[in-house]
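Hi P.,

Sorry for the delay on this. The queue was packed all week, but I finally got your sequence through. Input first:
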Amino acid sequence: MDATKVDVPEELDENFKKFLTSKGLRVTNQRLAIFSAAFTCENHFTAEDLLDSARKLDDSVSRATVYRALPLLTQSGLIREVDVGKDYKYYAANKDAKTFQAQVICEDCDTIFEIDAPFMEWYGKTVAEKLGLTTVGQRLQVITKCHKSGSCKNIAAK
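Then the structure:
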């Protein structure tokens, strides 16, 4: 399947292509398939999830290409890395977030919810300025349990 046929806003597609070019990298069908798969994921995803999705768009996508593309996607700002304290990372496309997003993470079923937390931007900036520093990143995570009852999956489906 041609990766360019996936429903990704043209502006984001062009931004990714410009980013690759600015880094001296080629715009390949595999990279475009990985970008399209990442951007069209509804939920948080792992590198392995991304590999599966990208291969549906272009069966020539390799695991190595996915792992090399993830840092490029995060550097471009088109996706973000979510560290939930496991030996692997989750990722999410930066789609419509207008404010700081906090993560509520269920450690029983690995469901991740994104919750608007606009106060965090103010808080981070205020604390850094008091110390004469500049904020370059911050995160807020709340760890929860559903005791594998499936309640998180039901909430996430709403």
